[in-house]
Task: inverse folding
């Protein structure tokens, strides 16, 4: 029996308002909450509610994570989603923890990073009444230093990307150990992206992707586990209902046993299987863009300028504003990545272009600097 370890990550930022240079000093709101509400309600209808309903109906055990910043907005704009999530987790599944604000704090401020994770745990305790065993950092960002920081928490499992530099030596279909003794799960990005990116792509030579074909790929892939990690919004938002994505997911759930496959959570797999060997990862990796490093957020001078300004303003802007500015999406929108990465960035960017996103964010930071920090 081989295990399908499916992990779905749900996240939406608190998007920043359109903020012109002329708006500096006028008291204009920093956050675009009307748009945030509309997006939360749309994605809840298209993705979160129907997917959670399907998972709950079949009691299929998978691992989920909702960023703290998303849960905040869901409780405010669409509370039926966290209520349904609670119902699903009461009978099946696992809830992972992460950085509350979906930030890059792990790469520059360990204390802030740990505080975010603890805040995330606190937020989720009224949804999940079991001990948290699995951690997933923002966008799967990971290296040995993050392993060391996370060692301050009582978690057993860490999820990250199975990059090309790793999988030529380490089959992602096995569990490994980190230097600090955590179980390390590597995403099988090819099989994951067959669903999340290629499922409805008519130019793909495997289109259309039927459940029988996909399950045969999983069954014939050597190893103990198939780590299918993807955005929750894959189901119903990125891949719309009309593509047949929900019928595909339902068929995977109901037909897996016919292929000697079984769905399980991350922690259940860790308890049933032995790690192969230890992996040390020195450089930062992530699941974003083709390079699968930090370049999706810090790959150009505009992004690095915003990041340094953000760090410099730490401590003088009130936390109830500053923490939301740390969300990595604000830097992601400023990426100047090449095709096909830029296509994905453009899809998510609410500001029209990376340059507009940069100017918008910088104007907000300048307004805050003048209002709260050193005015010189």
Result:
């Amino acid at each position: 029996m081989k295990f399908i370890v499916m992990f779905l990550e749900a996240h939406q930022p608190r998007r920043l308002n359109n903020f012109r240079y002329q708006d500096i000093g006028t008291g204009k709101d920093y956050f675009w909450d009307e748009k945030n509400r509309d997006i939360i309600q749309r994605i809840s209808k298209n993705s979160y509610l129907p997917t959670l309903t399907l998972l709950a109906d079949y009691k299929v055990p998978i691992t989920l994570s909702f960023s703290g910043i998303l849960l905040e907005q869901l409780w405010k704009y669409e509370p039926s989603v966290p209520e349904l999530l609670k119902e699903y987790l009461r009978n099946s599944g696992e809830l992972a923890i992460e950085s509350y604000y979906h930030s890059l704090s792990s790469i520059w401020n360990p204390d802030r990073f740990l505080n975010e994770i603890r805040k995330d745990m606190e937020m989720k305790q009224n949804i999940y009444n079991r001990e948290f065993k699995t951690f997933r950092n923002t966008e799967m960002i990971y290296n040995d230093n993050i392993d060391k920081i996370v060692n301050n928490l009582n978690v057993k499992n860490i999820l990250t990307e199975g990059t090309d530099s790793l999988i030529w030596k380490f089959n992602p279909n096995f569990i490994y150990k980190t230097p600090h003794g955590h179980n390390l799960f590597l995403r099988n990005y090819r099989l994951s992206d067959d669903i999340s990116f290629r499922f409805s792509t008519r130019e793909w030579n495997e289109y259309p992707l039927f459940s029988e074909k996909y399950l045969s790929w999983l069954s014939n892939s050597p190893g103990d586990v198939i780590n299918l990690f993807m955005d929750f919004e894959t189901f119903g938002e990125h891949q719309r209902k009309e593509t047949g994505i929900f019928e595909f997911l339902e068929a995977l759930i109901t037909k897996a046993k016919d292929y000697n496959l079984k769905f399980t959570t991350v922690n259940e797999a860790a308890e049933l299987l032995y790690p192969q060997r230890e992996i040390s990862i020195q450089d930062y990796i992530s699941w974003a863009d083709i390079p699968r490093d930090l370049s999706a957020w810090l790959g150009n001078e505009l992004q690095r300028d915003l990041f340094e300004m953000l760090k410099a303003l730490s401590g003088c802007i009130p936390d109830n504003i500053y923490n939301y500015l740390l969300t990595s999406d604000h830097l992601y929108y400023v990426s100047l990545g090449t095709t096909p990465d830029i296509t994905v960035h453009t899809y998510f960017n609410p500001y029209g272009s990376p340059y507009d996103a940069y100017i918008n964010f910088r104007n907000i930071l300048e307004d805050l600097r003048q209002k709260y920090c050193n005015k010189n």
